[in-house]
Design goal:
alpha+beta; Elongation Factor Tu (Ef-tu), domain 3; OB fold (Dihydrolipoamide Acetyltransferase, E2P); six-stranded antiparallel barrel; five-stranded antiparallel beta sheet; 7 helices; disordered N terminus; disordered C terminus
Length: 383
């Protein structure tokens, strides 16, 4: 028993005397409590770390809003007949491009004949009365009897002149040519022409249909001054100024972004949606824009030049933001920063933080790799 106990103690002693295995150092040197990390040239190449000095660039706050693509009122027209009639011919379809003065629709009605007949009758009576008026005016000078007849002629002449003017106005409104009208040119048709160049957006009638002056025949638009009509809340409207940049997307084209600028700011609040209207000019008026399309837009406000870094350069470590500054050929230092506005992939660095790292090379790509190495979670690092 004594010999067995001696053997056990000897084995324990031998085991304790064995040297503990060494831990190999990692390929880069760091201390968990330090802010610096040093890499080998191979590691730098593998990590594809890129650096750049902090630059000042324009950055702004953003107001998000929605709206539509629209046209000014003068670029939209609803075509009504100026006199009742039957649709004889429709020369256009929805989407047809037309020029100002181009024939759109032909109407016909027997009343057109009666109107022209009445005008010619009054015209001939007026021409006779005009000559008689001249003759009686000459005779009436110094002759009391002739003067009385002149007054009667003058009255008839004045009535015919008024009637002629009235019929001319009616014919002009109806689209009938009274200036060149002769008995041989009397027609039962009225032509309706395009008031401006543009395209047909709606057709409401068909051949043979009877229409009155209250009915819509066609809608027309001219897209030359297509623009944005945006709506913003009053609390945001106070930040908006003329000329501010607008970025917007169009419904149905989410992969494309378009640009514009604030041109007009509404003066009243729409009580239905508690919003103020913002009129924006589009930088490039494309044919693919259609009035009524919904848009989502961002208006850039309070634009100012500030020191910024790419979002990829920032490291969030337990609520504190850091960047890595290059302090040697292969050495980087972890430096705390305070951030501000975020815009277009860039983040504002506060003036105090900027002064600390001004002129230094900041890691713009690979910051997360450095963080991982610093915390020892990269491959080849044993704890």
């Amino acid at each position: 028993m004594k010999n067995l106990l001696t053997l056990i103690l000897a084995l324990v002693f031998i085991g304790c005397a064995k040297e503990a295995p060494d831990h190999h150092e990692n390929d880069h040197d760091h201390d968990e409590n330090t802010k610096n990390v040093i890499f080998t040239s191979e590691q730098l190449e593998m990590a594809e770390i890129k650096t750049a000095k902090i630059q000042e660039q324009e950055i702004s706050d953003e107001i998000n809003c929605i709206g539509i693509i629209d046209l000014p009122p003068q670029n939209k027209a609803t075509i009504h007949p100026q006199i009742q009639g039957f649709i004889k011919e429709i020369r256009v379809l929805i989407g047809t491009k037309v020029k100002k003065g181009e024939l759109l629709v032909v109407l016909e009605h027997p009343d057109y004949i009666k109107l022209q007949e009445a005008y010619l009758e009054v015209l001939y009576q007026f021409k006779f009365a005009e000559k008689e008026f001249s003759r009686q005016k000459t005779l009436s000078e110094g002759n009391a009897t002739a003067k009385k007849q002149f007054e009667k002629t003058e009255s008839e002449y004045g009535l015919l002149k008024a009637k002629k003017a009235s019929l001319e106005a009616q014919m002009k409104m109806a689209g009938l040519d009274f200036k060149n009208l002769t008995p041989e040119k009397i027609t039962n048709q009225v032509n309706i022409y395009a008031p401006f160049s543009g395209s047909i957006s709606n057709v409401f009638v068909q051949t043979g249909q009877h229409v009155t002056i209250e009915e819509r025949i066609l809608d027309m638009i001219n897209k030359e001054h297509i623009h944005l009509e945006l709506q913003v809340f009053p609390r945001d409207a106070v930040k908006i100024a003329l000329g501010q940049e607008i970025k917007f997307e169009v419904q149905g084209l989410p992969e494309r972004k378009f640009a514009g600028e604030v041109f007009l700011i509404g003066e009243t609040v729409d009580q239905h949606n508690n919003a103020i209207n913002i009129h924006g000019h589009i930088e490039e008026e494309l044919d693919l824009f259609k009035p009524g399309m919904y848009v989502s837009a961002t208006i850039k406000v309070n634009a100012q030049k500030l020191p910024v870094v790419p979002e990829n350069a920032l490291i969030n470590d337990e609520g504190q933001y850091f960047v890595f500054a290059k302090t040697g050929d292969s050495e980087f230092e972890k430096m705390p920063v305070e951030i501000g506005l975020v815009n277009g992939g860039f983040v504002e660095i506060s003036s105090g933080s900027f002064q600390m790292i001004k002129g230094m090379e900041i890691v713009t790509e690979g910051a997360n790799y450095i963080k991982a190495q610093m915390h020892g979670i990269s491959g080849g690092h044993d704890h």
